[in-house]
Amino acid sequence: ALMITDECINCDVCEPECPNDAIYMGIEIYEINPNKCTECVGHFDAPQCRQVCPVDCIPLHPDHVESREQLLVKYQKLIAPK
Ligand code: SF4
Ligand code: SF4
């Protein structure tokens, strides 16, 4: 999963781009729910939030390093009917 650092300027452009609705407004800045972020695996070739962020403040979350296979499993769970 990716994360948003405190360099975020709350420009609002990433939130609507996330195919998993993983991005939300936190107390001060936008945040990413690591349980919903597949790094866009399953939807796009590249992380959409990172592509639009004007200040490049969306690195890999050091506590949530996942393989492509793990990200694909997460994606499949997210799209599975509840
Ligand atoms: Fe959403 Fe993709 Fe960004 Fe993860 S990498 S927060 S899934 S847009
Ligand atoms: Fe923050 Fe970047 Fe998202 Fe803008 S695109 S709200 S600067 S994380």
TrEMBL record:
GO cellular component: cytoplasm
Keyword 4Fe-4S attributed: yes
Domain 4Fe-4S ferredoxin-type: 1-28, 30-63
GO MF annotation: an example: metal ion binding
Superkingdom of origin: Bacteria
Keyword set, alphabetical order: 4Fe-4S, Electron transport, Iron, Iron-sulfur, Metal-binding, Repeat, Transport
Organism taxonomic ancestry: Bacteria, Pseudomonadati, Pseudomonadota, Betaproteobacteria, Burkholderiales
Organism: Polynucleobacter paneuropaeus
Protein name as it appears in the record: Ferredoxin
